[in-house]
Every structure is written in structure tokens, then in C-alpha cells.
Amino acid sequence: MLTIALTKGRIEEPVVNLLDQAGYGMANVRNKKRELIFNDEHQAIRYCLVKAADSVTYINQGAVDVAFVGSDVIAESDRTFYEVLDLNVGRCDFVLAAPKGVDLFARDGHLKIGTKYPEFTKQYFQGKGYDVEIIKIEGSVELSPLIGVVDGIIDIMETGNTLRQNGLVVVDNIQPVSTRMIVNTASFRTKSGAISELIERLGGVVNA
Ligand code: PRP
């Protein structure tokens, strides 16, 4: 039995669509109510629905063999798993943003940055030689500069609507983000047949 974690939220539907196209029947997952686990006896696969950061935790604990997560979540993790495929969906960008008219890099002294990604943010500013104070925000990060908690934010931007509608502008478009397939290192050896088949079938759909 292969256990696969599907990340709930923005990447759930595109990943379920890809699995469907690859011939893994996803009707049960599609028609779910509040269930969190689904067995596909025919394919010998068990699907779990989890929050992005928990996908990585379950992979690291060996509780799931395979997970589909954004590269933003991977950037924030300690990468103790294999990243085997870029699904090319859930595409967005990591950006540094600030209120219109604020020149973050022209400021002397202390910069405060709000983010859901403290590790990525730390590395980004270290690379620029800036010492910043990072404030961890759990959601709606765009609010934090508006209420004066931080000077700028690092977050993912998809359409840019949230930034625009809150008077924020992109200061630096740091790097693209997309959904990746990750695999527990032990599972990669012990369940190599089923995992290779999944990579091949999904890869075929992604490249088609
Ligand atoms: C993400 C991100 C931005 C928004 C960007 O948040 O943190 O807030 O989407 O999307 P846009 O560029 O299309 O406007 P998400 O919707 O995942 O929710 P959260 O803020 O509660 O984490």
C-alpha cells in the first residue's frame, strides 16, 4: 500500500486533476465531505488530505510515502526527502513587497519583515548582507505592514490581486514556485515499483 499526502487548498484541485489524467481514479477524493483519508483498494493507494507543512512532517516521520507540496513549503523545510518531479501547477512567485512609496533597501538601520516563511526570509536577507528582524505571520501577511507591525513582507504572489488591493508593490520578484512531488527516502527504496510508476505516469501527463 502506498500512502500519498495531498495538500489541501490552492494546489489540491490541480494535483487531483493530474492524478486523474494519469489514470488514478480520484472520484472519491473529489466528492469528499469532511473525510481526511481515502483508500483505493484497486490501485493499493491510500490518500490523506493534509495542510502543506504537515505533508513534510508526515514524510519525515515515514507516515506517508509520497506528498505533493509547493516549492515554497520545501524551501522552508529541512529537505530530508527526495524531490522527484515538478508538476508545473500551482505556479506563483516568492516576492518581497512593501507599501507603495517605501524604499526598503534605502533605509538605514532596522528592517522588520513579516512572513509565513521565516527560514526562506532569513536566507534571502543573509544573501543580501542585511540584518532584519523577522516576524512570523500565519496568514493574510499583507495586513502586517498596513497596521505598522513590519516594513515589508516576503510571501507568495499568484495573481497579485491581494498586494494591489492592499496598496503594496513588489520590491523584488525572488523566485518562481510550483508544486513538486516529494518522496520519503526509505519508501523510495522499499516501494520503488509503485513510486516509479507514479513518477512515470504523472511525468507523462505533465510533459504532454
Ligand atoms: C496566499 C498568499 C497571498 C495570496 C496571494 O495566501 O499568502 O496572501 O495567496 O495570491 P494573489 O496574488 O492571487 O492575490 P492564501 O490564499 O494561501 O491564504 P493565507 O494568507 O490565509 O495563507
Please, could you describe this protein's structure?
It is a single chain. This protein is an alpha/beta fold and 208 residues long. It is built from 9 helices and 11 strands. The protein binds 1-O-pyrophosphono-5-O-phosphono-alpha-D-ribofuranose (PRP). The site of 1-O-pyrophosphono-5-O-phosphono-alpha-D-ribofuranose has 13 residues, from β9 and α7.
Fill in the keyword field for this structure.
208 residues; alpha/beta; six-stranded mixed beta sheet; five-stranded mixed beta sheet; 9 helices; 11 strands; binds 1-O-pyrophosphono-5-O-phosphono-alpha-D-ribofuranose
Walk me through the topology.
Blueprint: E1 2-7, H1 12-21, H2 27-30, E2 37-40, E3 45-50, H3 52-61, E4 66-70, H4 71-75, E5 82-86, E6 92-99, E7 111-115, H5 118-128, E8 132-136, H6 143-146, E9 152-157, H7 161-165, E10 168-177, E11 179-183, H8 185-190, H9 192-207
Parallel strand pairs: 1-3, 1-4, 7-8, 7-9
Antiparallel strand pairs: 2-3, 4-11, 5-11, 6-9, 6-10
Residues 10, 139-142, 155-162 line the site of 1-O-pyrophosphono-5-O-phosphono-alpha-D-ribofuranose.
Unreliable residue stretches: none
Give the DSSP E fraction (strand runs of 2 or more residues): 25-35%
Total beta strand runs: 11
Q: Which sequence of SSEs, written as H and E, runs from N to C?
A: EHHEEHEHEEEHEHEHEEHH
Mean pLDDT: 96
Strand sequence of the main sheet, in spatial order?
2-3-1-4-11-5
How does the overall form come out from the CA principal axes?
A: elongated
Structural class: alpha/beta
Count of alpha/pi helices: 9
Largest sheet: 6 strands, mixed
